[in-house]
Amino acid sequence: MALSQNSELVVQLGDTYNNLSKHIEGQLNMHGISFSEFLVMNQLVSAPKHCLSRVELAKKVSLTASGITRMLVPMEKIGLVEKAANPRDARVSLVKLTTSGHKIYQEAETAVNETSNQLFEKLTSKQGEQLANLLRRMY
């Protein structure tokens, strides 16, 4: 039995993600972070006061609560993120991007932008917008 058209598309999207992340990983390794860590840092940079609860952060990067905790432990050890008190609920700690983490993120962001531009240079601006719109419609 052959894969359906939608299944073929899922496989192609998976292959595309793997290829994109491999190219970006190479650039991010020079900054000492992985693509997954960059995605976490990107969410924190975008968040109010650069901090989120672990549960919110896990949802935003499509990880479980335990998965985000496992990812954050080494990030805390090297000073990219830190725990912050939650003024509304002392039982829930927040994850905050450190000053050092913010600096590394900014450097990594430049590398991601440059690599992304190279990866998508074969698409016109309009094609890029269309692709982005199609991908957003899936979720």
Automatic annotation (TrEMBL):
InterPro entries: HTH_MarR-typ, MarR/SlyA-like, WH-like_DNA-bd_sf, WH_DNA-bd_sf. This is MarR family winged helix-turn-helix transcriptional regulator. SMART domains: HTH_MARR. Residues 6-139 form the HTH marR-type domain. It comes from Agaribacter flavus. PANTHER family: HTH-TYPE TRANSCRIPTIONAL REPRESSOR YETL, TRANSCRIPTIONAL REGULATOR, MARR FAMILY.
